[in-house]
Design goal:
Length: 160
């Protein structure tokens, strides 16, 4: 599949930030769809026993937001298991950006953005930087932050 090149990122650019948590043998996955960096467009969730990548792909592809979302954003620190960004890109046909804990930057696969290491699949580095410039704010990427807040509260309810 050919990489996406985005020459201009509109203010209403839609992204989905995804976090997940393992509960017993299942994965609870939460995604928050953001328009730009200010407006929540929707929340999607899935409980699955398949792998994390397949669960994210199923959740997004079955969602009414699939056609609107332009990019998937993940943070390795907020995922219970590794996910293949290349497979996720191929399954969803949406570019994927994964913020990583990796210390080494292999320029073929990774780049640095605001002191974080990013792995991109399905999108070139220049386009990824343009997207991140549009959706990144002081506290990071709001879609991921909100997804994590929602996920933590659901997990708390489950543990009551």
């Amino acid at each position: 599949m050919k990489q996406v090149h985005i020459s201009q990122v509109k203010p209403e650019f839609r992204s989905i930030g995804v976090t997940a948590h393992r509960i017993n043998e299942k994965l609870l996955i939460v995604g928050v769809v953001y328009r730009g960096k200010d407006i929540i467009d929707g929340v999607v969730s899935q409980v699955t026993s398949v792998g994390l990548g397949d669960g994210i792909a199923d959740m997004l592809c079955e969602s009414k937001h699939h056609g609107q979302v332009r990019i998937i954003i993940l943070d390795e620190a907020m995922l219970p298991e590794p996910v293949s960004v290349e497979n996720l890109w191929e399954e969803t046909e949406k570019p994927v950006l994964l913020f990583s804990k990796s210390m080494e930057v292999d320029p073929k696969y990774l780049f640095e953005y605001k002191e974080r290491v990013v792995r991109a699949a399905g999108i070139d580095e220049d386009s990824a930087r343009r997207v991140l410039d549009r959706i990144y704010c002081e506290s990071g990427i709001e879609a991921i932050r909100m997804s994590d807040i929602i996920l933590r509260n659901i997990v708390r309810l489950h543990n009551v």
